[in-house]
Amino acid sequence: MPDDNSNFGFELDNKPYMYTDLWEDPLPRDFYFVNRKTGEYKLLFEAFMGSFAISNTTDNLFTYEYDKEAWIVTNLNTLEKRDISSVLPYPIKNLSFDKPQPASPYGQAGMTADNRYFLVYDEFDVWALPLDSSKNAVCITGGYGRENNIRFKVINISGGRTREEGVDLKKEILLESVNYNNMYSGFYTLQPGKKPELLTEGPQKFKFVKRSGRSNYIIQIENFSQAPDYWLVGSDFTLKERLTDLNEQTKDYKFGKTEYITWSDYRGAKQTGILYTPEDYDSAKKYPMIVYFYETMSQDIFMFYPPAPTTSTINPAMFVSRGYVVFMPDIRYEIGWPGQSCLNIVESGTKNLIDKGVADPERIGVQGHSWGGYQVAYLITKTDIFKCACSETAVANMTSAYTGLRAGAGKPRMFMYESSQSRIGGTLWDRQQNYIQNSPIFFLDKVTTPLLSRHSDGDEAVPYSQGLELFLGLKRLGKEVWMFNYKGDGHNIKKRDIAVDWSRRMDEYFDYYLMGAKRPVWMN
Fold first, then answer.
1. DSSP-assigned letters across all residues of 36-77
2. How confident is the model over 158-197, as pLDDT tens digits?
3. Is residue 477 part of a domain?
4. Is position 155 within any domain?
């Protein structure tokens, strides 16, 4: 909202659309303009769906409207509206967004210092959109991002969440980057009229923190084996001084290594993922492998995982340190067919690592939680590639879960399927076969893979009854299945003693099937 000195204010009202909250996500909102001088109160956008930005230095409002897929500038003095992004040669909506709802934009970097341009992003580059309709849009990064498969974002050197001053196109601009060829992050300098010039890039996760003095900066550096710590760097981003050492106690641990990998799926499309390997990895050996996924994972390739018991998903550092390799594929979905989309990518990616001699085909397990847990339950009805599987807090039956409740929010689950994560894209009656074909419950007779399940009766996101459907269905069919209900616990494990117990049981389970360890008593 504008600051206290502004003449303008805004109100967003979703009350007229609350009924559709049962199945719609996100909700539309009526967008009102308030003139604080005159008291004028006017509807600017009815049933608005999108995002907005307010200029601190001009009387302009910038809105991205999902249905128009465009940035609109509204002059708050005249209330005139104008599309300022249709001149761009590339889409500004997120092309990788794969839920059955409108895609958000790649984002914006605010106004320029001269108040003449509004800065927005396409998939790779930064564009200056003129407020004067007689001027042309300018790609200030010169197309370098698209040419080199690098994504740029403008850095706010003040370090705050909001930019106090506009971006001065006549001075040096600092950019943060992600190189999509290897997922390295980095920093670039952009001089007026020139293309970006690399300052530093590497297999880390960089985060700009703030300026320090006149010519230094503070940044955060993190990777799989290094906890996120603060560093002082010079104007050219060379390291000067380590400012923190927050996890010194982990320096003697063997965390392993990460690799960004690609392969072709069954349809010939390029897919991507992360491979975690032990520090003493031997390419001549075949390793036991754990496959874990949720949606896309590669953005976190350089995330640090501190050694700790799990509250939901596997900890790759813990498994790699014990001699496993861990594979995390990126899942990209076809609306209406989330299960089949997952199968296409996960099975093809797993076979790729078998063919390359990385994974021992007789020692591969799979684990997932929540949305990942559902996908694991689906996979084992369609493939026998896994020696064992672990599924936590999974939906087993979309037809019954559709009218279930997310108890924590007190909200029906219909929106999850019609317009959100479960990606069916219609009602149970419009797309009945999609609900059935994507539901593991109807195909449990095909399962040959042992399954370990956790679904506690205090789950606030996925009804406990879904865990029972999965367990009891497999039990009735005579399949190997174990289910843990930590009484009163939730979707994610809340208590450390439960996390320790569940982590131990997962370790014992996978070690028995994949490492040749002794069968634990609780499995008998």
1. TTT--EEEEEEEE-EEEEE-SSSSEEEEEETTTTEEEEEETT
2. 755 556 678 999 999 999 999 999 999 999 999 999 999 9
3. yes
4. no
For residue 485, is pLDDT > 90? yes
d(CA 339, CA 376): 9
Q: What pLDDT is recorded for position 193? A: 92
Pairing of strands 226-233, 216-223: antiparallel
Res. 157 pLDDT band, cuts 50 70 90:
confident
CA distance 467 to 259: 34
Q: How far apart are CA 40 and CA 150, in angstroms?
A: 46
Q: What whole-number distance in Å separates Cα of residue 73 and Cα of residue 262?
A: 41
Percent of the chain with pLDDT over 90: 87
Question: What are the beta bridge partners of residue 65?
Answer: 50, 70
List pLDDT tens digits, range 258-316: 999 999 999 999 999 999 999 999 999 999 999 999 999 999 999 999 989 999 999 99
DSSP string, 97-159: --SSSPPPBS-EEEEBTTSSEEEEE-SS-EEEEESSTTSPPEETTTTHHHHHTEEEEE--TT-
Cβ neighbour number for residue 305 with a 10 Å cutoff: 19
Residues in the chain: 524
Which amino acid, residue 19?
Y
Is 111 contained in some domain?
A: no
User: What tens digit of pLDDT does each residue of 402-435 get?
Assistant: 999 999 998 999 999 999 999 999 999 999 999 9
Pair of tokens at residue 286? 């075949």
Q: Is the dihedral of CA 311, 317, 322, 328 positive or negative?
A: positive
- Collapsing DSSP to helix, strand or coil, 373 comes out as helix
Tell me whether residue 438 is in a domain: yes
Question: What CA–CA distances, in Å, run from 123 to 45, 89, 272?
Answer: 27, 12, 18
Give me the CATH number covering residue 492: 3.40.50.1820
Tell me if residue 175 falls in helix, strand or coil: strand
Residue 44 vs residues 37, 72, 256, 333: alpha-carbon distances, Å: 18, 12, 54, 35
Q: What angle do helix axes 338-355 and 371-379 make, rounded to 10 degrees?
A: 70
The two three-digit tokens of residue 489, written as one number: 């616990």
- Lateral strand order in the sheet of 359-369: 257-264, 270-277, 325-329, 287-292, 359-369, 388-392, 451-454, 481-484
Question: Which residue is associated with the tokens 């390359």?
Answer: 356
- Measured in whole angstroms, the distance separating CA 457 from the mean position of its chain's CA atoms is 27
Domain count, the chain: 1
Domain extent at residue 463: 257-523
CA-to-CA distance for 317 and 75, rounded, in angstroms? Answer: 53
| Cα distances (angstroms) measured from residue 377 to each of 367, 391, 419, 508 | 10, 6, 22, 20
Alpha-carbon separation of residue 233 from 215, 222, 236, 248, 523 (angstroms): 9, 15, 8, 21, 54
Helices (H), 424-495: 432-437, 464-476
